[in-house]
Design a protein that fits this description.
Strand content: over 45%
Number of strands: 47
Number of helices: 4
InterPro entries: LipoPS_assembly_LptD, LptD, LptD_C
Distance between the termini: 44 Å
Structural class: mainly beta
Organism: Marinomonas fungiae
Radius of gyration: 35 Å
Subcellular location: Cell outer membrane
Shape: elongated
Subunit structure: Component of the lipopolysaccharide transport and assembly complex. Interacts with LptE and LptA.
Helix content: under 10%
Protein name: LPS-assembly protein LptD
Largest sheet: 31 strands, antiparallel
Length: 754
């Protein structure tokens, strides 16, 4: 008898690879009745969990329990009244059970078959346990899988002797009891545990019992084995078009696969039918290969509009770690269709002014690192200036540091190429060496250092068709000091006070013959005041003799969490600066005797953060820089974001003066309203606007929003965006890739793992 009872468990393992249906409350425990550990595993939107009370019993014996048990002369076993047939791996309960041990069992009335993590209930059940003919059939069945939270219902469930499972008129969902946000229904469903896949005919996806999508035939996985077949399609609706994508997955080999996605874009409204470059069909291709060294991926998106014009984007990436220290890789983007981009695109490639093509090799060992890189670009628009290319760039660096001394040499060689053949290009060799000695203890330190910067150029001037050479050999000296004071207050809270002083001497050296390949002037902030370099990149060596004074205070709570950071300082210049980004050097480019007053204030709370940078020039009575960012996210689900950025420029048209406001407001436990607006105070116009609603529970999440924004061409566009996810099934919808929106923030707020 134990032999045929074990077949019930095998049946269970096959049945419950598939999800389940209709709301019921078997083994359902509300959130408030769960332990703290169990509640921690739930999303904030889940009201409870299925808790399996089944326990496997020891031994191989079979236990029979009923109001009356007897066996007739032919050997048929009868169990009437609260009949239970229990064995180590499963338990069969019914009003009555009859059968011949080793041949079959027939159960009637409130039938329940239970195993670990699984339940199936029905009105009637027939189970054949004969060797070579182990079949089972359940009428009006309901089933539940505790771990996957999948429940379902079917008119009939049957299992053949070769392991195939048939479900007639059945559906499943992962929604909680009493909640039918979504269901997947099939008139007939066949499951093949051996292949790991199932098929269904006349499939409907129902939202709150309303059919919203229909598929004549659908193939879906039952386990984690990779199989070729259609993945769930996605549907997108914007203010202008309806998009349909139907991906097909190809499991070509254990180490490589492919996904092919046909796309269809149809216009919505008569006015949009004239915009034929946005309507049409296309196909996306993704190929992946995984070796023991790394991953390689190829993507292509092609779209044909109604006029037959093609738009294509391609991307190839590979990164291979050949040894623990040595690796190679490539990153190649391509747009071969004259600055056109696909209207429907499910790949990671986006529209860009310049498409990068890069190959590299790296070698790292301990504190030594090196890299060789070739970088080129494709610029589809011939009117655009092409970026400088590296043919190649070779770099290496080493880091040595102990408690007192530090030495950091960096070398770099770059062969720059100007594709437009205008201005200058050429070869640049760079050597940067930073050596310093530190003396200090727990209450203060002094660091004295020297920065050596060497540049050598072999240049070609296309305008004059001449070659020339230039070099710079420069030494800078610096002395950094700081003292730390500390006090305790309010129990275990503590505050630090750290006065800082930095002296930097970088003598002037003529650099008029040196081009600007990658130099940028760094924005003056409190942190930059104590930097030893005025410019980023390697084409400008800033001259200065300056003293930076600063005062920094940090406040820590009794858990040693940094709550407040306050900084204030100023740079005092002892000499005029003669090196700028543009033009010849030698003339004074900045004769101010001191910088603006540089301040920073930041607060880090449990659900509230605030960061401010504020620079004020008292000589000119003006604000040079003002940046603020506030984020408030209490546990209630409310989100409030506010930011403002102001950067002064002598040319008012080049000033930056922008603000952004966004909020997510809970309406109830499931509904949220979100709003965002961005405003440019220089142009006096709103640059982005988003309003919408979001809904989320334990098994579905959806957003509906209106969005208006400025596109890459500087023109305003608008659309209505719908997106929803059916947990454990599929994502449906289309997001706006042109801007970062509060709708995207809301989409990532929920803790449900979709």
């Amino acid at each position: 008898m134990p032999k045929h009872l074990r077949s019930y468990a095998l049946l269970f393992q096959s049945l419950f690879i598939l999800p389940m249906a209709q709301a019921n409350e078997w083994d359902w425990v509300p959130r408030e009745s769960l332990s703290e550990a169990q509640q921690a595993t739930l999303s904030q939107y889940c009201r409870g969990a299925y808790v399996d009370s089944w326990q496997v019993i020891d031994g191989d014996n079979t236990h029979l329990l009923a109001d009356m048990i007897y066996r007739d002369e032919q050997g048929t076993l009868f169990m009437d009244g609260a009949a239970t047939l229990r064995q180590p791996l499963s338990q069969l309960d019914a009003d009555s059970i009859k059968g011949v041990p080793g041949e079959y069992y027939q159960a009637k009335g409130d039938v329940s078959l239970r195993a670990e993590g699984q339940i199936i209930r029905s009105d009637n059940a027939y189970i054949s346990s004969m060797d070579g003919n182990q079949t089972a059939q359940f009428d009006n069945a309901k089933f539940l899988s505790h771990k996957s939270r999948i429940r379902g219902e079917a008119g009939e469930i049957s299992r053949t002797r070769d392991g195939l499972i048939f479900i007639k008129e059945g559906f499943y969902t992962t929604c909680e009891p009493g909640e039918n946000s979504w269901q997947l229904y099939g008139s007939s469903i066949e499951l093949n545990p051996d292949s790991g896949f199932g098929t269904a005919k006349h499939v409907q996806i129902r939202i709150h019992d309303i059919p919203v999508f229909y598929f004549p035939w659908l193939r879906f996985p039952l386990d984690t084995r990779r199989q070729s077949g259609f993945l769930f399609p996605s549907f997108g609706i914007s203010g202008k078009s309806f998009t349909l994508s139907a991906p097909y997955y190809l499991n070509l080999a254990p180490e490589y696969d492919a996904t092919i996605t046909p796309n269809l874009v149809l216009p919505i409204g008569e006015a949009d039918r004239d915009d034929k470059d946005q309507n049409g069909q296309g196909i996306d291709i993704e190929l992946r290969h995984l070796s023991r060294y790394g991953e390689t991926q190829f993507e292509q998106s092609t779209f044909y509009d109604e006029n037959g014009d093609e738009a294509t984007l391609r991307k190839f990436t590979t990164d291979q770690r050949l040894t623990d220290s040595f690796g190679v890789g490539a990153y190649l983007e391509d747009n071969p269709t004259e600055n056109r981009v696909p209207e429907a695109n499910n790949t990671s490639i986006q529209e860009e002014d310049h498409y990068e093509r890069r190959g590299y090799a790296r070698y790292n060992l301990g504190n030594f690192s090196s890299n060789v890189q070739v970088r080129r670009f494709q610029t589809p628009d011939p009117a655009e200036d092409k970026p400088l290319e590296w043919l190649p760039r070779v770099s290496a660096s080493y880091r040595y540091a102990d408690t007192q001394y530090s030495y950091r040499p960096d070398i770099e060689f770059t062969d720059f190429f100007e594709p437009d053949k205008e201005g200058q290009d050429g070869q640049r060799a760079v050597l940067n060496q930073d050596f310093n000695a530190r003396f200090g203890n727990e209450w203060g330190e002094i660091t004295a250092g020297m920065l050596h910067q060497y540049r050598d150029y072999q240049l070609h001037d296309y305008d004059n068709d001449q070659n020339n050479r230039a070099s710079v050999n420069h030494l800078s000296y610096y002395l950094d000091t700081s003292v730390v004071f500390e006090r305790r207050f309010n129990g275990n809270w503590r505050q630090t006070l750290e006065p800082q002083m930095s002296y930097l001497y970088a003598p002037y050296e003529a650099q008029s013959d040196i081009p600007d390949f990658d130099a940028n002037e760094m924005e003056m902030t409190y942190a930059q005041a104590f930097s030893h370099r005025r410019f980023s990149g390697n084409d400008r060596i800033g001259d200065t003799e300056q003293v930076a004074l600063g005062l920094e205070s940090r406040i820590y709570d009794d858990n040693n969490v940094n709550r407040w950071t306050l900084q204030g300082g100023q740079v005092f210049y002892l000499k005029d600066r003669k090196v700028g980004i543009d033009g010849n050097t030698g003339e004074v480019v900045d004769d101010s005797t001191h910088s603006a007053v540089l301040t920073t204030a930041a607060y880090n709370g449990d659900n509230f953060t605030l960061a401010n940078h504020f620079n004020y020039d008292f000589d000119e009575n003006r604000v040079d820089l003002a940046q603020s960012a506030l984020k408030y996210t209490p546990d209630s689900g409310f989100v409030f974001n506010l930011s403002f950025s102001y950067l002064y420029d002598d040319n008012e048209d080049d000033m930056t003066k922008q603000s952004s406001f966004g909020t997510i407001i809970p309406i109830n436990d499931n509904w949220h309203f979100f709003h965002q607006q961005s405003y440019d105070w220089v142009d006096r116009e709103q640059t982005a606007q988003v309003e919408g609603f979001g809904y989320e529970n334990c098994c579905i999440k959806t957003t509906f929003s209106y969005q208006r924004w400025r596109d890459n061409d500087g023109l305003f566009d608008e659309g209505v965006f719908i997106q929803f996810i059916l947990r454990s099934l599929s994502g449906v919808g289309r997001t706006n890739s042109d801007i970062d929106t509060i709708a995207d923030d809301y989409w990532n707020q929920g803790k449900v793992g979709y």
